[in-house]
Amino acid sequence: MKLYDLQSAPNPRRVRIFMAEKGIEGVEKVSVDLPAGENLSDQFRAMNPMAQVPVLELDDGTQLSESVAICRYLESAFPEPNLMGVEALEQASIEMWQRRIEFNLFYPVLMAFRNIKGLFADRERISGEWGDISKERARTTMAWLDSHLADREFIAADRYTIADITALCAVDFARVVALRHEQEGLEHLEAWHQRIASRPSSQA
Question: Model's pTM, two decimal places?
Fold first, then answer.
């Protein structure tokens, strides 16, 4: 397999962590320079018309994009350890928390980055006001998540799941817009972060 990647971007990191947790090795990494616009080339758009990373290319040439879709494929192809739920109710519960984190923390952090930093101002309309609004939404979600983690070791189940991966990538990436959970007085979120970040997969 081949993973079209960008080391600093949070979405490819989700897939790399997912792979690391499952012990998937031998995947070729191809770095795509987004700031330079490599993702806008005809060659890359042929793989992913949305011009985004990551893209996973299978051995038969099939190409998959969208981080969670890639993880869903990997979950089926490499079922252990399970990261997305075993029976129906657990699968639904993990998906529920995954989407809560994705929509209320992960994406607001991305919108804050894109609109405050303006890295892609040459190719998209940006709004500093929307960046600030998104940052505050992420801050509010961190506080809510802190309360949720008051008596829980993990976010969605009694074990590590994809919801923890998405939250870790969001919390870490929030630093680029000067949103640091450890400076917000969120002791439960900080304890969770220390546990999750200490896993070897977090370095993937």
Answer: 0.97
